[in-house]
């Protein structure tokens, strides 16, 4: 319910009335409309009193939080902008928030999840004398740096800055893709496709996830699942397009075409992603270490770091390992696309279940199965084996990726969620940048992938143990409960 003391009408829980302009005026100390109550007029006449103004703003912020849309055209368009929307219609499913989120993950995580195809192509054609471990640093830089800017973007987001960082980062990401087309040496690929692309993806990804907390509460899980579904679409489109285009038009024009695809998707993101709540009055310091007073949050951050030491290993090396097992290279590049298609179902399903059970209750079993599949992957020998691994691994690893910020959103509030998610992303970046190269080094030293699977699977399983501790901390030792 909205605060009746502010003179605002009470609304039913399942019906959202957009009062953003009115609330914003009140937050700024101005009047509402001619229909305002005596309490509103009283507030206006006394707005010179700083204490009353401060209290009123706090009441307005609470009103915004209590009036979380959890749907509606405006809310779902946000999600589509962070995902990718082929068509938007004014329906009861609130497509506005949905639209905003999808194109962002399509053009960022979808592109990053494609590196397994580039890893194989670079090993075979562009850099045949360079070790797989060295080449994997390009992909690792992407994986890690997509999280590193979270500390800065989270702070900017909490202070109300969304549109400008998104626009600048989008332009630089498209530029980095065009520049990759001109690369001929390893350091050039690392700089353009690894570092620049990773950082710009991170600046886009952070705010795209943060806006979800403004528009969704009860349906936050499914919203996050739909958002991350954009990366599955991108992770399916980009590798298939890249492989065929390289054969038909060459590497340079392949990268240029991918750049134009990103340009289209990110244009939707820049036009649709927006905050709903006013900026928070957060302290000026970049990192607020008081967030680590939450034991559950601290353990969860460590769990994320450990998980990413192994989570992307299968996606990075499944193509190469299939060729190593004797499969046709013209088929193996489809494995990354198959895993990403499967992950799309996993992400949305996980979000739907998480809204009913709590995110940690679905993260733990889903991530456990992903660990088991990581152990099994090196033993695949036939086409059927690899396809099965790609489908099942994609399905269950997606649970972790799609619900990654959900537990944090429950631990914090709508005004510090940016910095909490940002700090967590920055911490897990250490695991993301180290995991694939460590796996590559193990592969180079052993000449196979069995030890790689043991290492990566063990890291994921260790993170499951930490997730269980996090859950028990949230539930204060109870066995059953929503967490």
UniProtKB/TrEMBL annotation:
Any coiled-coil regions, as ranges: none
Database matches in InterPro entries: MFS, MFS_dom, MFS_trans_sf, Proton-linked_MCT
CDD domains listed in its UniProt record: MFS_MCT_SLC16
Alphabetical UniProt keywords: Membrane, Transmembrane, Transmembrane helix
Residue span, Major facilitator superfamily (MFS) profile domain: 78-474
GO cellular component terms given for this protein: membrane
Cell compartment(s), UniProt: Membrane
Matching Gene3D superfamilies: MFS general substrate transporter like domains
GO MF entries: transmembrane transporter activity
Top-level taxonomic group: Eukaryota
Transmembrane regions listed in the UniProt entry: 101-122, 134-152, 164-181, 187-209, 221-241, 253-274, 295-318, 330-350, 362-380, 386-404, 416-433, 453-470
Topology versus the membrane: Multi-pass membrane protein
Similarity comment: family membership: Belongs to the major facilitator superfamily. Monocarboxylate porter (TC 2.A.1.13) family.
Protein name from the UniProt record: Major facilitator superfamily (MFS) profile domain-containing protein
Organism, scientific name: Steccherinum ochraceum
């Amino acid at each position: 319910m909205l605060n009746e003391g502010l003179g605002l009408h009470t609304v039913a829980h399942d019906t959202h009335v957009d009062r953003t302009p009115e609330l914003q005026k009140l937050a700024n100390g101005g009047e509402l409309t001619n229909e305002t109550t005596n309490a509103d007029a009283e507030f206006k006449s006394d707005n010179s009193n700083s204490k009353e103004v401060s209290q009123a703003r706090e009441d307005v912020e609470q009103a915004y939080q209590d009036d979380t849309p959890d749907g509606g055209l405006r809310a779902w368009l946000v999600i589509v902008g962070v995902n990718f929307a082929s068509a938007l219609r004014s329906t009861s499913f609130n497509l506005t928030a949905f639209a905003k989120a999808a194109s962002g993950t399509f053009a960022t995580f979808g592109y990053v999840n494609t590196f397994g195809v580039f890893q194989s192509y670079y090993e075979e054609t562009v850099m045949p004398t360079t070790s797989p471990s060295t080449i994997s640093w390009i992909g690792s830089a992407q994986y890690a740096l997509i999280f590193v800017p979270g500390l800065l973007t989270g702070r900017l987001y909490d202070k109300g800055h969304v549109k400008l960082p998104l626009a600048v980062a989008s332009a630089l990401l498209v530029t980095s893709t065009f520049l990759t087309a001109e690369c001929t040496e390893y350091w050039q690929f690392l700089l353009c496709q690894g570092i620049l692309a990773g950082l710009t993806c991170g600046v886009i990804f952070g705010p795209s996830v943060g806006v979800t907390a403004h528009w969704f509460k009860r349906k936050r899980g499914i919203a996050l699942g739909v958002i991350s579904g954009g990366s599955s679409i991108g992770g399916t489109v980009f590798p298939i397009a890249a492989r065929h285009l390289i054969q038909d038009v060459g590497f340079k024009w392949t990268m240029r075409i991918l750049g134009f695809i990103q340009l289209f998707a990110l244009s939707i993101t820049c036009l649709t992603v927006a905050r709903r709540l006013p900026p928070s009055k957060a302290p000026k310091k970049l990192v607020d270490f008081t967030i680590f007073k939450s034991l559950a949050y601290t353990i969860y951050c460590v769990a994320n770091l450990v998980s990413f030491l192994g989570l992307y290993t299968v996606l990075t090396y499944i193509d190469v390992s299939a060729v190593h097992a004797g499969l046709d290279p013209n088929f193996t590049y489809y494995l990354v696309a198959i895993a990403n298609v499967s992950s799309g179902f996993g992400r949305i399903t996980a979000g739907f279940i998480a809204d009913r059970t709590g995110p940690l209750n679905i993260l733990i079993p889903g991530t456990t199965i992903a660990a088991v599949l990581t152990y099994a992957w090196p033993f695949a020998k036939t086409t059927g084996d690899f396809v099965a691994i790609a489908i099942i691994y994609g399905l269950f690893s997606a649970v972790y990726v799609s619900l990654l910020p959900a537990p944090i959103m429950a631990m914090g509030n709508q005004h510090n969620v940016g910095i909490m998610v940002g700090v967590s992303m920055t911490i897990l970046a250490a695991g993301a940048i180290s995991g694939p190269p460590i796996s590559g080094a193990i592969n180079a030293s052993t000449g196979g992938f069995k030890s790689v699977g043991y290492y990566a699977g063990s890291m994921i399983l260790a993170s499951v143990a930490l997730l269980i501790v996090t859950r028990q901390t949230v539930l204060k030792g109870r066995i059953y409960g929503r967490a």
